[in-house]
From TrEMBL:
Topology of the protein relative to the lipid bilayer: Multi-pass membrane protein
Compartments where found: Membrane
TM ranges: 29-56, 68-88, 97-116, 122-142, 154-177, 197-217, 292-313, 365-386, 419-441, 453-476, 482-502
Organism (species): Panstrongylus lignarius
Protein name: Putative synaptic vesicle glycoprotein 2b
Keyword Transmembrane helix: yes
Alphabetical keyword list: Membrane, Transmembrane, Transmembrane helix, Transport
Length: 509
């Protein structure tokens, strides 16, 4: 807090200097507090349906393909909206979009919880994917724009930790709410069950963020980049006052540098959507030419294969555990010592009516998910330590190779080892995801970095869509094929990663 005490007189200050003079204190702690629901918002939106599918499938009569649509809907929305959110954020700022985006997403989540049939629920989850894609990414950028350089990495790392903690809290909430399967009749015979309450509560992080964002300041960096220096100065003064408790008149900075590019004229402060679209197209076209194309395509393939393999298993685990548990309860020929795919195939012999009649959600299902997600939290700590000693591409090779071995073993082992192998596989593939993002940041120049990051994330989400539909189509009939396919894909990725150059790409321009 003492960092804001030395005046710099009438000299103009750049962004980093002005932010450091605003100090570090209560304002930053409040933003970190808001990071808890913000970091959980997107994972809760995308994973919520997977936890309720076993019981929801009986309540609203869902087929496997129907369940795939529900699992995939948020990702489809994210793919559609990713580019538009970037334009809106660069045009209208961070604070307003955070407020409206999070609030609308929470309302869509609540509407999904009340949807009586499949397609209204798919629609609301699809729209929720559209809405959460922007605010979640914008908030991560917002953190880096209101924390001084000294604490910036800490703030971003904290967001990652909170996201992992959120992944633990959601299955814990499912464990608490879903197994009792209580139902209340609200109106005209409409039943509202505990699994719907779970969907309702899964929208609460977005609701909290939307309300809290209404009281946040605009990003001072955005204001400076738009030439709105007086507004940016007022934001710095507000941060200074909250952090130090002193009047804003004592803030030591009185003038700010103009952060707009020199080539930008006063009449060209706002880019049109068409201009942004053209620039995005140019940057994408640049990636399709040397020296970018070879490494870009390889990273796209690694991301698509690893993320689709990860989610092909993760999003269907509650359904798989539930189907096997129900089959073992109603079928005396099914044993825990049998392989995963044998038990899953046996479960398909029950008619939907018989399955729902014998449906009892075992709380152990969600305890397994808590254990699996807990391993992901441990993975982040291990990854940070490994980075000091091992190249990212080496980590990528090992994680995908070991994941491939786990995948080929999964259909053959008994249920006693399925949870352990699954936790290992998903944790390693999470580490692969971190490696891909870190590699892009290291290899590609700033001019194309944001574009390739967006395209890489899009490849992953496209992979999730196809993986979901594929798993739903053959899960009960050709279960082994799922694991053989993912094994082959991960093995090819492991070999391909050996050819990924670790030398940063340099260009003449």
């Amino acid at each position: 807090q003492k960092e804001g005490s030395d005046s710099i007189g009438n000299e103009s200050a750049d962004f980093e200097t002005a932010l450091s003079k605003a100090g570090y204190g209560k304002f930053n702690y409040l933003i970190l507090l808001l990071t808890i629901p913000a970091a959980s918002s997107s994972p809760w939106v995308t994973a919520a349906m997977s936890f309720v599918l076993p019981i929801a499938g009986c309540d609203i009569s869902l087929t496997s393909i129907d369940k795939a649509w529900l699992n995939s809907a948020p990702y489809a929305g994210m793919i559609l909206s990713a580019f538009f959110w970037g334009f809106l954020s660069d045009t209208y700022g961070r604070q307003r979009l955070l407020t409206y985006g999070f609030l609308v997403d929470s309302m869509l989540g609540i509407c999904a919880s009340f949807s009586p049939t499949l397609w209204p629920m798919v629609f609301f989850k699809f729209m929720s994917g559209i809405m959460i894609c922007g605010p979640y990414s914008i908030f991560m950028a917002y953190i880096s724009e209101v924390f001084m350089y000294k604490y910036r990495n800490f703030a971003v790392s904290t967001a990652g930790i909170f996201s992992a903690i959120g992944n633990l809290m959601q299955p814990a909430l499912a464990w608490l709410l879903i197994p009792p399967n209580l139902t209340w009749t609200l109106w005209d015979g409409y039943d509202y069950s505990t699994w719907r309450i779970f969907l309702f509560i899964s929208s609460v992080p977005s609701l909290i963020c939307g309300i809290a964002s209404a009281f946040c300041v605009e990003s001072p960096k955005f204001l400076l980049e738009k030439g709105r220096k007086e507004e940016a100065l007022n934001v710095f003064k507000t941060i200074y006052t909250i952090n130090t408790g002193k009047p804003n008149s004592t803030y030591p900075v009185h003038k700010l540098h103009d952060m707009r590019p020199q080539a930008c004229s006063e009449n060209e402060k706002e880019k049109s959507f068409w201009k942004v679209l053209q620039n995005g197209g140019k940057q994408t076209f640049m990636l399709l030419k040397p020296p970018f194309i070879y490494r870009a395509l390889l990273l796209f393939f690694i991301q698509l294969g690893s993320v689709s393999s990860l989610n092909a298993i993760r999003l269907w685990l509650p359904q798989i555990f539930s189907a096997i548990d129900t089959a073992s309860t109603s079928n005396s020929t099914t044993s825990e010592d049998q392989g995963l795919c044998v038990q899953l195939t046996e479960s398909a012999k029950n008619t939907p009516e018989a399955t729902c009649e014998n449906m009892v959600i075992n709380p152990d299902l969600y305890m397994n998910m808590i254990f699996i997600n807990c391993s992901g939290l441990l993975t982040q700590a291990v990854y940070v330590v490994l980075l000091k000693y091992v190249q990212k591409k080496r980590i990528m090779t090992v994680t995908t190779a070991v994941s491939a071995v786990c995948m080929i073993a999964l259909p053959m082992v008994s249920m006693k080892f399925v949870v352990l192998l699954t936790a290992c596989t998903l944790s390693l593939l999470n580490m692969t995801f971190f490696c891909v993002i870190g590699t892009i940041v290291e290899l590609f120049p700033t001019a194309v970095r944001a574009t390739i990051l967006s395209l890489t994330m899009m490849c992953g989400r496209i992979g999730i869509l196809f993986a979901n539909i594929g798993v739903a189509s053959i899960m009960y009939t050709h279960c082994n094929a799922i694991f053989y396919t993912t094994f082959t894909l991960l093995a090819v990725i492991a070999i391909s990663s050996l050819f990924l150059s670790a030398k940063p790409i340099t260009t003449k321009n």
